[in-house]
# Entry
Amino acid sequence: MFEVMNAGLETAIQDYPGRVGYWNQGFPPSGPMDHWSFRLANVLVGNEPGDAALECQFTGPELRFHEDTVVAVTGGDMQPHIDGEPIELWRSYAVKAGQTLKLSYAKTGARGYIAVAGAIRTEPWLGSRATFHKAGVGGFEGRAIQAGQQIPTGDASGGTPDMVVIPEARPELPSDKRWEIEVVAGPNDDWLDEAGVRTFLEADWKLSAKSDRTGYRLEGPGDRLTFADKAINKRPEHGSEPSNIIDQGYPNGAINLAGLTPIILVKDGPSMGGFINPFTVPTSGFWKLGQVRPGEVIRFRAISVDEAQRLAREMTRICSRESLRPA
Amino acid sequence: MIYEEPRFLPGGDRYMLIEFGDEMNLELNFRGQDLANVVAEQKTKGVLETAPCFASTLIHYDPELISFADLKKEMASLIEGLRPADDIELPSRLFYFPTVYLDPWTKECVEDYIAKIAKKTPDPEYVAELNGLSGVDQLVRVHSGTEYWVASLGFWPGLPFTMPLDPRCRLVAPKYNPPRTWTPKGSVGMGGMSTAIYPEHLPGGYQVFGRTPVPIWDTEKRFPVFENSICLFRPGDRIRFVPCSIEEFEHVEAQVADGSYQYNLVEYQKFSVAQYKEWVAGIDETQRF
# Structure
């Protein structure tokens, strides 16, 4: 068990891949935005990669441990300290009962991850401990953790202190605030014409501050996107705007063209709706959405389904004990 | 149009969208729902979950267990074996929803959007005009004059995507550009030819012109109708919006708050697609209410 001394900006319990199996009722997966850093945090302390751990946004929490355990911090650099002494990211540390782990603001990236040996053991909701903030379900009492809460954890005896993630297995954050993010064409890419596809892929898109865990709004040349004939001459039940389609299931990670504003549907995003999704961010590109900050620039790079699946497989291999060595 | 061959479209590395056609009708909706049901019954290897809607089914799969190409083959063969819609008879519940049309709450929401985000004709006037109605009063008559078929749940937990069963009540409308950042809980609105109820205070893209005080999802399961699921509706249910006054709305709202509200529904009745089609064939679709 650990106690929340200070919650940070928005720190929440997540697991991976989250709440899968309820898309037909409208429940999103939730779970960590940067699944790469999240999984490695767990692996470092001896947990399974998908076990429940903490996701911190922009400013991290302060936690006090009630028993001896092992912790690790990964992701964006939130300058972690144990009892006032700075510790390294991407490394596991033994902590004693009574010690505190304190994170500060993110010097790089947007999200930090804290894993604790034995993992967080709150009551699962619909099969997952992931927090779905807006609906007030999952996690601890359905929302971000709060100061004063006691968060239950599992048996820490299998914890693995003093391990590090080898440098080549760590995600690399750009130093110039420009991101290249993989996308796969579809499901509705043929609603744009060739010029529209080119405009989309060649543009600089800025992440809007009006973004949250349901959707990432992009600012850019949305009003210059051009459409194929099927988007214009179509049956009335689609709705008359070019981006309107008969309501359909949305892939998580889809880039939804809502009117002329692209919105990337992220972890707490909608399962269905009536706008086209010309592109989808696959697993291998999705982790970057956890670290890009509002105001930073995204360019999309189209890859094939096969390539996206190969990259995801490679990432799963990286997010394992293979990537650790003793400190 | 109903496609001769369904279209199998990729969504990233883990999704496949199967489109059966590009119109809104019961037959296509049954294709989508039936495929999802068959996949669930057969526990198709590698399929994690599905999301059927009006004319399509989205499949979430694990590419480590089944490739896109094999999933496509598997789905094509399951689709071959689906029953013809004309044979379908299913139990269907009918829910009555007290609804204040042209209510002050959605009006305020639309005015806020117009002031802060984009100029537009207020939603009820806009939908009435687009559909050649004499005004907002006729919009209320036409919109409340039919049962709505719950084709699927999605967007938000429990939100029903529905279509009008009476062809005389078909209305169409574009979706917002850009979408709203908020919509009052319980708002009733439409986009394309679909009508929905917003389960919570949420962003949205439908034209809104009514509001109901009756909850359609409940994580605390305060009412018996939520015994088996925290979402009220199931695909195949029907909804009727019953125009009511603000006083009635407030009365129901108070009953919901103190737990005494009784959901107004007709339990399972048999719904026959063949009979429905026969009824539709006898109707002059050009007539409005």
About this structure: The CA atoms of residues 6 and 20 of chain B lie 5 Å apart.
